[in-house]
Amino acid sequence: MQVQDLRVAVEGKEIVKGLTLTVPAGEVHAIMGPNGSGKSTLANALMGHPRYEVTAGHVLLRGEDITELKPNERASKGLFLAMQYPTAVPGVTMVNFLRAALKGVQGRDVPIREFRQRLNEALEALKMDESFARRYVNDGFSGGEKKRAEVLQMGILKPVMAVMDETDSGLDIDALRTVSEGINALRTPEMGVLLITHYQRMLNYVTPDKVHVLYKGRIVRSGGLELATELEAKGYDWITNEVDAEEGDSNDDK
Questions:
Q1: For the residues 125-147, what does the mean pLDDT come to?
Q2: How many CA atoms are closer than 13 Å to the CA of 147, on its beta-carbon side?
Q3: What is the mean pLDDT of residues 3-29?
Q4: Pairing mode, if any, of strands 218-223 and 13-22?
Q5: Beta 52-61 vs 64-65: how paired, if at all?
Q6: What confidence score (pLDDT) does residue 125 get?
Q7: CB crowding 166-183: b at 16 or more within 10 Å, else e
Q8: Whole-angstrom Cα distance, residue 187 to residue 190?
C-alpha cells in the first residue's frame, strides 16, 4: 500500500496533513502517536469512511488508486480494517456473518465446503474453538473476544493489506498476547499490516519492520523497533517538543 501526500478533513477541519507512507507486502509497519494526532482518522480514511473527507493525495493498493472507491469496493480489492470499537450484531452468528463478508469481498457465492475449510484453517491458526463461530457477532463478547473476532475475520478474508486500529486497546496482558499470537499466525509474505497503536506493549509480541510516529496529522519520525522502545521509556514529549521547536524556527525564518 502507498499513501501519497494524504490530507483528510472531518467536518471541515483538517486532521491528516500531507501524510506519505509505503507499506510493502509482507511487512508490518506500526504507527504510534499521542492522542489526537490523527491515527484513527487515518485508519478510517484509508477504508473510505464517508465522514472522513480526503481533500488531497492518493491511496494506492497494489499500484491501483483506490482513493475514490467506496468501502465495500476497497474491501473487494483486498483492504481490511480491524476496528478499534467493534459493533455487536445480536441475532447474527459469526459463521453467517463471515460467510456473507467473504461473499461480499469475493463477489461470488462461496461453496459451503470451501468456506468451512477456510473457517477451520483460521480457527486452528488462531487456536479458537469452533463454538466461537456459532455465537452472535460481538454480542456479550469481552474486549479480548471482540478483538479476536476481528482477527478471525482477517483470517477468513485474507486481505492484501490489513489496517489494525488500536487492536490492543482495552486488552489485559493475557488477551493482548492471544490476539498478537493470532496476528502473527496469519502473517504471510503477500499481506502488509499497518498496526496503529498508542503503546509499545503490543510491539513486544508483533515485531514491526518499521515504526512511524504520527503527530499533528503527519509522520514526524520513522525508525525500527528501538524507536518504539525509546517512546515507551521517554513518552512522546521529547519528539513533540522537537517538532514544535522546528516548526517555530521555520515560522521565525518566514
A1: 92
A2: 23
A3: 97
A4: unpaired
A5: antiparallel
A6: 87
A7: bbbbebeeebbbbbbbbb
A8: 8
CA–CA separation, 167 vs 152, rounded Å? Answer: 13
Task: Say if CB 236 and CB 34 are below 8 A apart.
Answer: yes
Distance, in Å, from the CA atom of 232 to the CA atom of 215, rounded to the nearest integer, reads: 16
Q: Within 10 A of 243 (CB to CB), how many other CB atoms are there?
A: 16
How much is the CA Rg of the chain, to the nearest whole Å? 19
Determine the Cα–Cα distance for residues 28 and 162; give it in Å rounded to an integer.
Answer: 9
202, β-bridge pairs: none
In this structure, which long-range contacts are made by residues 96-104, counting pairs with CB atoms below 8 Å and at least 24 apart in sequence? 97/137, 98/133, 98/152, 98/153, 98/156, 101/153, 101/156, 101/157, 102/156, 102/157, 104/72, 104/75, 104/76
Q: Cα separation of 133 and 151, whole Å?
A: 13
The three cell numbers of residue 253 are 525564518
pTM for the full predicted model: 0.92
Q: What CATH number labels 2-87+160-253? A: 3.40.50.300
